[in-house]
């Protein structure tokens, strides 16, 4: 077999193994290692490339962002800041049709800016928001759909684990990727709020709920106590990166320290909680390091096979336009989103399309935002919508089926698709802050 044939078979084998339940880094690493061995008929070369991939990943300075931001997010979650932001947002939106849904989106957007995890957002707001919406006579399908849809904000609003993973695969600045995610993340949150207003106006039965007229307003002091810690943390992290005072690693360290001080001041941090956060940070960091290492050897395997260049030649030979290429790219991500999780999609498709993006003089920062948003739609689509599964397992309510969660999330997946095409058409929206 030629290197091209081996490369194509290896990509199919990786997708098949991941879908069969094999751990993602294992599938990427083993298939890539064997493919290199077969292509060059040299076991030593394959082994040396594996050693180089491990060394390059572990010794990269910017990799320190992963444990720092992960620790910060865990501490913030345990400190109860998500619940506080939700209570303030609910007070402001409760008198609007679908207002608690809008409050959930707003709280999720703020929470995402200090956690960077869709799974954490889905878990927290399933417990906080869904019971309250059901108590206010909202349609259960709408209630879980709002949480599922808004949970994906955690993967686009910085600090985002997916943006970090992309930055390693594409060799881009983590800080630049964070800044590029700010405007698209805010756009998506605003689009969700607008969609809820439209649904409340034109499909009131799907939304359900009742408008509460006699809401008791919080005092200014109470609002400040619930919002200032989170807003201060966001300002330190993103403000430090934007002004250039802090690198992404330094911002992560400062954010982790401030989050720990907030948790101690609120008396939500015990020795046991602190130890659990450290252990979980270690587990998540090791898993991401394993992912990045496997992605590194996978990229080398694709380069040896010549697949990216072959793809570029095919599209150039057919005189494919910019929109044709981007449409194919989006369709591929949507298809893989029905089978794989976001990290898998990024690790598989980015090394394939990156040389093509560079050849067409596309901004790799903008290309990363498009990739993450496109891959995130998969969190809401069956059969492997991870956010939907997290919500179903967290809510533990027999009245709400997994189908209800997927159907409730469907309008929000459609909104994401619209925002994605807007971002493709107007790259400045992703690059304005850089």
TrEMBL record:
Assembly: The complex comprises the extracytoplasmic solute receptor protein and the two transmembrane proteins.
This protein's record includes keyword Membrane: yes
Role noted for this protein: Part of the tripartite ATP-independent periplasmic (TRAP) transport system.
Localization, UniProt: Cell inner membrane
Family: Belongs to the TRAP transporter large permease family.
Transmembrane segments: 7-38, 58-77, 98-122, 142-166, 178-199, 232-265, 277-299, 314-332, 339-357, 363-391, 412-433
Name listed for the protein in its UniProt record: TRAP transporter large permease protein
Pfam families attached to this UniProt entry: DctM
Mode of membrane association: Multi-pass membrane protein
Domain called TRAP C4-dicarboxylate transport system permease DctM subunit: residue spans: 12-427
Keywords linked to the UniProt accession: Cell inner membrane, Cell membrane, Membrane, Transmembrane, Transmembrane helix, Transport
Primary localization: membrane
